[in-house]
Amino acid sequence: MATPCPVWFVPFTRQHARLADIIVALEHEGMELVARRPHDAFGGPGILFLDADSELPKVADALAELSSETTCNVLAVSIGRLPGPSTWALLRSGVSDVFSWFDVDHPVDIVTSRLRYWLDLDATVAELQTRLVGSSPRWSEALRQVVDMAHSSCQVLITGESGTGKELVAQEIHRLDTRPAKRDCVVVDCTNLIPGLSGSELFGHEKGAFTNAISTRDGAVALAHDGTLFLDELGELPLPLQAEFLRALQEGTYKRVGSNTWRQARFRLVSATNRDLLAEVQKGTFRQDLYYRVSGWTCHLPPLRERKEDIQPLAEHFFTQQHGIKQPVDRQVYDFLLLRDYPGNVRELQQLVTRIASRHLGEGPITIGDIPRADWPDFAKLGVPTPTGDELEAGVTTLLYQGLGLKEIKDQVTEIAKKVAITHEHGNLKLAAMRLRCSERILQMHRRDEPETQLRLA
Ligand SMILES: Nc1ncnc2c1ncn2[C@@H]1O[C@H](COP(=O)(O)OP(=O)(O)OP(=O)(O)O)[C@@H](O)[C@H]1O
């Protein structure tokens, strides 16, 4: 008997008898299917059952609601054939896969293999998040890709601004790599390659090959044999070395500096860059053939400004894991961290937390007094006009003279606050809710009342 596999489903079909047969067939293989109602909060993978008469805009609304709550894989199973454009529309609105139950052989196997893989993926991502902290949709999506990449045999290129976690991700890709008898991950920072001697760093050298070559030495390519070679800042790899490196990658052969003997090394390449390598190719500073070879699968890590929801969990992680501070952190400190910019991304946040933690003395929560003066916000620049008591009073007086009672006035101010917060966070309800210190659900209800925000399948 297969291990139980809990899965939700939403029916968008009226073919109840056929749907019941499908559910029985899946439950026989260990799937535990639970009907999901609107606003049910449970994560994990699930299935949408459709047919040719399903109202796709309703399906799109359900998917939009799901993706605002959680990052999960959704399989669309059609009972009957869907027109081609509908399947693309479903993929574009967020389903991970779509197929027609009666058009394939072994549909039960197709569903169970995908759902089991996605359940494993969720578990792996949750474990990764203890080190690669963050659960924003952008970050969760990146982590899902990281796991898929690690399980593939592709050469991986990680892109992203400085400090977004590229090296950390590279180490995790090596850790998750399931190659049997996998050996070490060898790191080479291409910015440190010394012109002239850089061939030695990668390929090793023979004794006497150059002035300081007092003994024979292996390079990174040899050390990474049967393991992973991580080339950080790949865009800095000197052009003359690129051809040699391409050969090592393609053929698995290389020569030590000062030697005429071809040697062999097989390794997985993971590289990282914060440069636009395609632009470098166009400028002629990076070989096009090498670019296509190293970018078998590209993963872009989002900058911190695109995943502000992760600032607080990251700060908590750094306070507790790196500084052993278990005391609570005052809300105002998190508000300060949230409002700031981080051009240096997670590294900059990490360094700021270190400065705050090192100023924190003794017992009690971490408070804004622990923030070093040099890090204080530029109050002049904040420029948020705070209504004076008089202005607020004038606004409330107007409402009073319009005949509004206390509840109506409160409701009006609340609605304005929600609208302003949502606008300031560019429609991101999670961030707006953090600002207002209310639940996201309250803002979703506010959104639902606005007719123009209806989502539709494109
Ligand atoms: N999601 C994360 N969770 C915990 N720590 C993180 C995370 N992302 C980055 N860090 C930490 O931030 C610092 C910078 O990360 P890392 O060196 O991996 O970034 P990078 O993108 O390789 O930077 P660069 O391009 O400058 O080399 C490291 O100390 C790393 O441990």
UniProtKB/TrEMBL annotation:
PROSITE patterns: SIGMA54_INTERACT_1, SIGMA54_INTERACT_4
All residue ranges annotated as the Sigma-54 factor interaction domain in the record: 132-358
Keywords, alphabetical: ATP-binding, Nucleotide-binding
Top-level taxon in the UniProt lineage: Bacteria
CDD domains listed in its UniProt record: AAA
PANTHER family the UniProt entry points to: TRANSCRIPTIONAL REGULATORY PROTEIN
Protein's UniProt name: Sigma-54 factor interaction domain-containing protein
